[in-house]
Amino acid sequence: AMSGFEQLLRERIGLDAASIGSSSIQRTLRLRMKSLGLRSLEEYRRRLQSSRAEWTELVEALVVTETWFFRDQEAFAALVGLVRQEWLQANRAGQVRLLNRPCSSGEEPYSMAMALLDAGVPAERFSIEAIDLSARALARARQGLYGRNSFRGQDLAFRERWFQPVKDGYLLAPVIRRCVRFAQANLLSPEFCAGSVPYDFVFCRNLLIYFDRPTQARALARLQGLLCPLGVLFVGAAELPLVLAQSFASANLPLAFACRRADGVERALQHSRPAALNRSSPGSGGPARNGAV
Description:
Elements: H1 2-13, H2 17-20, H3 22-36, H4 41-50, H5 52-62, H6 73-90, E1 96-100, H7 107-118, E2 126-132, H8 135-143, E3 145-146, H9 157-162, E4 163-166, E5 169-172, H10 174-177, E6 180-184, E7 199-203, H11 213-226, E8 227-234, H12 240-244, E9 248-250, E10 258-261, H13 265-271
Parallel strand pairs: 1-2, 1-7, 2-6, 7-8
Antiparallel strand pairs: 3-5, 4-5, 8-10, 9-10
């Protein structure tokens, strides 16, 4: 019975049971069954088949949403350097398009917006789309209210600039919230971003580790199709080796875990500028650190 649920999760959301452990899935199923007053896995399976709402509850219970602002600062520093010294230099008009999937409760896409604005990139020159499976996480993201756990590390100067202390935590400034458009969607769905204009930068960090190998290949093929030829994909540290084995090449940005479409690397080198990139941390208010070699 458990293998049937694990197969269902793999088919619908790409979740590899081994990534979180079968015991974790079983525990979650038992808790959902208890809340519904059901005694057997077969009863719960029938409920899942007939109730879209219960499927949503199960996914919400399984999806990991923990994150914080400027998690792995090198990625945001690299993004700022690439936008300022490559994209803006090559595009005198228009918007740089950015995608964040999964966006969880919003800390990552909002960090992208803060980093760009702090680096002097006008809000009208960039567009950020943030997507996640979890409706609850998206609701928290749209609210823009965060507790202390969303702020980690020593440099919290950005909190003084962009947040207002309130009774329940810290409320993000409206100017930052307006920079991000949130939507609920599944990366593996055939209609995901169908017909969308390609993105210049995609953040898809710490999602692929929850997929099995075939699903990782499907997801990477989808991400490759979403990137423009000169685009850059940011992934998690543990994910970079498998990405580099799937039609991507390193962007040579230390500790940013960034890569380009293999067919776009040569074009990117032709468009790059020889000037050294600035090296101060994003969120500090100064020019962003890129670390390109």
